[in-house]
Amino acid sequence: MSGDQILQLFAYLLPAVVTGVVAFYFFRLHTRNEDGRRRYLLHKDSQKETLPIRLQAYERMALFLERIALNSLVVRVSPTGKKKSDYENLLIKQIETEFEHNLSQQIYMSDSCWNIIKTAKNTTIQIIRSAGMSETDSPDKLREDILNQTMEKESPSNAALAFVKKEVSDLWA
Predict the structure, then answer these.
(1) DSSP character at residue 77
(2) What are the transmembrane regions (predicted)?
(3) I need a labelling partner for 168 at 20 to 30 A (CA). Which of 112, 117, 124, 145 fits?
(4) Is the dihedral of CA 38, 39, 42, 47 positive or negative?
């Protein structure tokens, strides 16, 4: 093969190679674009189904936090006996029952939100237990001690509820 023939071969091959590379590039670009479009449509369809469920989970947890707020809990749950320890245990049982009833909602919210809700529950129980350690001897005095403690500082439920509201507002951001 002479130099002229090699040059002619390259002259024929070069446009074919350039066309092949350009076609490959555009095909790859088109494939990526279609994948992105499919993912977007799939995400959009799943949002239509999951967003109402997620919002319902946040609503249930907001209701849970409102129900375990000490000022509403103490008013809603009346002492059944004369022992302070029985009333303390009744309050804690109410909180635990409410929590167990809403346990499945954790799959619809972020880990940080769920951890804050658990912390609010545990802190509320801790406040009840610390009020139970006081020198009071009647359930009514225990109620009063618990209410006094909630007046002094922000309720753990309120702090957790503020975080839940912020997380819900972030769903639209």
Answers:
(1) S
(2) 6-27
(3) 124
(4) negative
- Name the nearest CA neighbour of 133 among 121, 122, 146: 146
Those residues with Cβ within 8 angstroms of residue 134's Cβ, 6 or more apart along the chain or in another chain: 142, 145
Cα 127 from chain centroid (whole Å): 25
Residue 173, pLDDT score = 64
117: its two tokens = 């809700």
The list of the chain residues with pLDDT below 50 reads none
Each residue's pLDDT tens digit, 125-141: 999 998 888 877 888 88
DSSP string of 33-76, one letter each residue = HHHHHHHHHHHHHHHHHHHHHHHHHHHHHHHHHHHHSHHHHHHH
Contacts 24+ apart (CB under 8 A), 163-172: 163/112, 163/113, 163/116, 164/58, 164/61, 164/62, 164/65, 164/113, 164/116, 164/117, 165/62, 167/58, 167/109, 167/110, 167/113, 168/55, 168/58, 171/51, 171/54, 171/55
Residues with Cβ within 8 Å of 140's Cβ and at least 6 positions away in sequence, in order, are 79
